[in-house]
Amino acid sequence: MNLSTNSTCTDVASRGSLELGSEACNQGQVIFTRFSTWQSCSVSYHFATLLVLDISTSQQQLTGAALAGQKFDTLTCWKGGILERCHVESHCSVVDDWIEAYKTDRDMALLDLINFFIQCSGCKGVVSGEMFRNMQNSEIIRRMTEEFDEDSGDYPLTMAGPLWKKFKGSFCEFIAVLVRQCQYSIIYDEYLMDTVISLLTGLSDSQVRAFRHTSTLAAMKLMTALVNVALNLSINMDNTQRQYETERNKNVAKRANDRLELLLQKRKELQENQDEIENMMNAIFKGVFVHRYRDAIAEIRAITIEEIGMWMKLYSDAFLNDSYLKYVGWTMHDKQGEVRLKCLTALQGLYYNRELNTRLELFTSRFKDRIVSMTLDKEYDVAVQAIKLLTLVLHTDEVLSPEDCESVYHLVYSAHRPVAIAAGEFLFKKLFSTREPEEEGAPKRRGRQSPNANLIKTTVFFFLESELHEHAAYLVDSLWESGADLLKDWECMTSLLLDDPVPGEEALTDRQETALIEIMLCTVRQAAECHPPVGRGTGKRVMTAKEKKTQLDDRTRMTELFAVTLPPLLAKYSIDTEKVTNLLQLPQFFDLDIYTTGRLEKHLEALLRQIREIVEKHTDTEVLEACSKTYHALCNEEFTIFNRVDIARSQLLDELVDKFNRLLEDFLQEGEEPDDDDAYQVLSTLKRITAFHNAHDLSQWDLFSSNFKLLNTGIENGDMPEQIVVHALQCTHYVVLWYLAKVSEGSHRKEELVSLRKQMRMFCLMCQRYLTNVNTTVKEQAFTILCDVLLVFSHQMVSGGREQLEPLVYSPDDSLQTELLSFILHHVFIDQDDDNGSTDGQQDDEAAKIEALHKRRNLLAAYCKLIIYNVVEMNTGADIFKQYMRYYNDYGDIIKETMSKTRQIDKIQCAKTLILSLQQVAFMEPIRLKEPCLDSTHLFTLPRLELARRFSLTFGLDQVKTRDAIAMLHKDGIEFAFKEPSPQGEGNPPLHLAFLDILSEFSSKLMRQDKRTVHMYLERFMTFQMALQRDDCWLPLISYRNSLQAGGDDDTMSVVSGYSSRGSSVRSKKIKAATPTATVAASMQTPVMMPSPHLTSTMMRGPGDMREEAKRGRDDSYMGVYTNHLFMYSYSILMVVCTNYGVCVCVCVCVCSRRGTGLMEEDEEPIVEDVMMSSEGRMEDLNEGMDFDTMDIDLVRPLTFYYIWKSHTERAVWLVALSCWRVMSG
């Protein structure tokens, strides 16, 4: 489409009709009618073409708006036009057309370009020709700023969506093409570039972010384009100089003087152009870059750093020096990860080119420490790029010290996989890059003589020196991508373990062999499973066809190798527990078909013999379980080797069971005292059977009778060794579970259900009897197994269409529930120093303490599962929940999750359990611990109120979901508070009245209408005399009433908030007036009672301080407000005056905030929940700052009396008010 430079609206619209249709023509006329206000019905060529193209892309939108009679937003049309133009037509053709227009009328073409930059910033304004001719750039920018749409902070570069991402790329490409197409002509006319650079420099200094961001991007891309031009000029100058030298060195007869003059003239022109380009670049650099690399907006800083990296990479002769590198070095300390990331990626492009390393020596020495420290950056992306940059720095000799390298080495154990992989690549290049070269023509060395032998040893040495032995899987995963070929050289590894060292070679030590076997196992697992170890994976991903083929090839290769080498390895290390345990795990990753297809049956027989011998030699649980799992992996009915393995397994188990029955018969003979050797034989055999019963069904051997007999004898005699009892309990547990699995699988007889039911109940009774055993280990084992059995045989087992199992359902009786709860309270909720029963006197050992804590956490989790699945009564959780604060560090996460799950099951019952827990903490627990109860003289006991606050936080922000539960909680709390009368007689507060202080913590969770309902329910328990009481002992009632009455108008805050351990700060609140309607409504709720002041909470002090201040009647204390009866009486009169005469009482609120320097605790996440209200006004306050704790309300201020005086001429009214003010102000 070709239009003249000064086409009219009609021309453009008509041309649009020819190419896009009549409907587009009509829409184009509407658009250009809008444009007629810009430039007197004539638009520039550039805008016209873009906007006509935009008609074809947004017809529905434009048609709808035209029918509605709307005016089109020029910005919207312009945005669409830019996008469509950028992707429909070539940038080159657009620029070529613009150049032709510039040659015809450079002012109009330049005006188009200026408006292009202005409107790409999202500005609606348009620079007219008159403005362009008569106004300076600063004045134009000021005018455009005034016309900028400030209602929205969005502009094209920040808008979301794929189109706007393309817009940014097209915008940058347009600038690059513009300079490239102009580099041989108008770029040197001292008009175009001067005007553009001047405009962009002015826009980049604007306070409008959109202008600054867009112009900085344009200026940086313009600079990059100029750098390319300067580079081309430099190359042409070198070529011209070389041609000139060649021509001048010719003989005089062959020399062409005309050519010399042409070359001199060309070199002079190139030099002039080079100088002019350098002037342009200097103007952009000093006018834009130097100011914007420190911009307040991170995106702008990132743009500048990204582009300066490009300049140094493209034109290193001019830019790769310390004058420019220092900006990148300084910016590496930027507080935004995005900017630091750009610095590192810019430097990677420089260090990648080894020819530039010599120019980077000074920079490297100056900023090396900063780069090393960035490997621990809090932004993982930055840390990854920092490690990659150091990997490139390794090319430079002796730059990184051993300390620098060690700081990167340990990152191979990072839980973040990209960081670990980057560190693994660094480690591989640093330690394993020096591979021994192989001679050409020589046979390939294998096994112990292979080039990988020393590298594998180096891996072992590194693993041992890192002192993180249990993280071999992490080390292998980190090195997998960079050194998979090395790690999969299993032939070399087995050779190092089996073959004797050659003369002069140092053999591996026992510790090194153990480490090598562990690494070998991890490499086999990584190759077979093709996913990272636990703790590093981000979920399973779909493998590609190439990865699947590699996996199959690796499994085949490892099976063929280890099927042959594993038996001799087991034979060599058969007495070493750790080595054997790792080696026995290898068959789990075999392709078992290889034993048949590869004719390896004799090696399978050797493997089975070695496993049998290991079972006979070892009694360690880990080794026995590894043997059991190996048999389980080999006994797969899908493979032909099943029969062979099954026979070997059956023979082994037959011998073990027969031996156990013989030993048990002798061991339990009456009248004989068993010696230690008999006990050891029984225990070792029982250990082997238990280990195999975990993975194999041994139902054909009647193990229940023998084990139950053993356990029953232990109960009767009380002298059974603890390990025998522990393993007998475990073995019997497996018997019951395998029996259940057999019954659940398919058809079963009624006799089987009866038999299983009988065995299960007998076993549960036996475990219950062992809960009272004197040995802690036995009690813990009995408790754990009992919880598991109760959970498995609960009412949940009949779900999923298994109603036939209903006879097996077993619910614990009250006595059993009591014993389970008692066990938890006496064995879990104890101090660390008290747990001396299960750590064998090693309490000083930190590892033993951690292990003991882990064991107690498992015990608590087992019991909490019974609560969650409704196996035991939910109210038994009250004894667990009340420990939330005291044992928060040890079990806080478990208790909190339990509360969350129980609330999901039954909100009402959960609320009842919480209130019961608080009642126990306030009144029953102190009696048990011989501490003072929460009575009227102990109003504020920090741990109890803090526990209530934590419980309140767990209800979350959604008041609708928790409405019924919160209402029930208040109902039960009120009933409890007034349940017991005062032992001193009538006229004294009820015995549990102080519980209302705790209940006040949940007032903020009530909805407005519910607060009124709860307040009315409270009044049922109150007498007229109670409402008039203002003594200290009645403060809980007064405080609780205030929290409910305030809810009619506004929501309240946490009473205990002031106790939270945060620092202090003061924040002012917005003045909020109480409406007369709300005041009347509040007074109507309690017609027979005098309304109490709406004090929601106050500045908190210690209990002793507050009582002393209350006695002194200080005005600034919590108590003083209530003990001053004259103050209260005057206040009441004033409120009546204000309400009856419609005065709006102004309440000035001061919020005293306390904020700590540390992180908030997990369940304190919503400090907002302390003050979360339904009123919109309070929500506005929350937006200002959410961690305020207490409110100190000055109820009456002089401003109130001013309003009374201004609003009412009745002398009596304002005289009464004035009298009240004088009394209240002292």
TrEMBL record:
<dbReference type="GO" id="GO:0007062">
    <property type="term" value="P:sister chromatid cohesion"/>
</dbReference>
<feature type="domain" description="SCD">
    <location>
        <begin position="289"/>
        <end position="374"/>
    </location>
</feature>
<dbReference type="GO" id="GO:0007059">
    <property type="term" value="P:chromosome segregation"/>
</dbReference>
<feature type="coiled-coil region">
    <location>
        <begin position="230"/>
        <end position="283"/>
    </location>
</feature>
<keyword id="KW-0131">Cell cycle</keyword>
<dbReference type="GO" id="GO:0008278">
    <property type="term" value="C:cohesin complex"/>
</dbReference>
<dbReference type="InterPro" id="IPR016024">
    <property type="entry name" value="ARM-type_fold"/>
</dbReference>
<keyword id="KW-0175">Coiled coil</keyword>
<dbReference type="InterPro" id="IPR013721">
    <property type="entry name" value="STAG"/>
</dbReference>
<protein>
    <recommendedName>
        <fullName>Cohesin subunit SA</fullName>
    </recommendedName>
</protein>
<dbReference type="InterPro" id="IPR020839">
    <property type="entry name" value="SCD"/>
</dbReference>
<keyword id="KW-0158">Chromosome</keyword>
<dbReference type="Pfam" id="PF08514">
    <property type="entry name" value="STAG"/>
</dbReference>
<keyword id="KW-0159">Chromosome partition</keyword>
<dbReference type="GO" id="GO:0051301">
    <property type="term" value="P:cell division"/>
</dbReference>
<comment type="function">
    <text>Component of cohesin complex, a complex required for the cohesion of sister chromatids after DNA replication. The cohesin complex apparently forms a large proteinaceous ring within which sister chromatids can be trapped. At anaphase, the complex is cleaved and dissociates from chromatin, allowing sister chromatids to segregate.</text>
</comment>
<keyword id="KW-0539">Nucleus</keyword>
<comment type="subunit">
    <text>Part of the cohesin complex which is composed of a heterodimer between a SMC1 protein (SMC1A or SMC1B) and SMC3, which are attached via their hinge domain, and RAD21 which link them at their heads, and one STAG protein.</text>
</comment>
<dbReference type="GO" id="GO:0000785">
    <property type="term" value="C:chromatin"/>
</dbReference>
<keyword id="KW-0812">Transmembrane</keyword>
<feature type="transmembrane region" description="Helical">
    <location>
        <begin position="1126"/>
        <end position="1152"/>
    </location>
</feature>
<dbReference type="GO" id="GO:0003682">
    <property type="term" value="F:chromatin binding"/>
</dbReference>
<keyword id="KW-0472">Membrane</keyword>
<dbReference type="Pfam" id="PF21581">
    <property type="entry name" value="SCD"/>
</dbReference>
<dbReference type="InterPro" id="IPR056396">
    <property type="entry name" value="HEAT_SCC3-SA"/>
</dbReference>
<dbReference type="Pfam" id="PF24571">
    <property type="entry name" value="HEAT_SCC3-SA"/>
</dbReference>
<dbReference type="GO" id="GO:0005634">
    <property type="term" value="C:nucleus"/>
</dbReference>
<keyword id="KW-0132">Cell division</keyword>
<keyword id="KW-1133">Transmembrane helix</keyword>
<comment type="similarity">
    <text>Belongs to the SCC3 family.</text>
</comment>
<dbReference type="GO" id="GO:0000775">
    <property type="term" value="C:chromosome, centromeric region"/>
</dbReference>
<dbReference type="InterPro" id="IPR039662">
    <property type="entry name" value="Cohesin_Scc3/SA"/>
</dbReference>
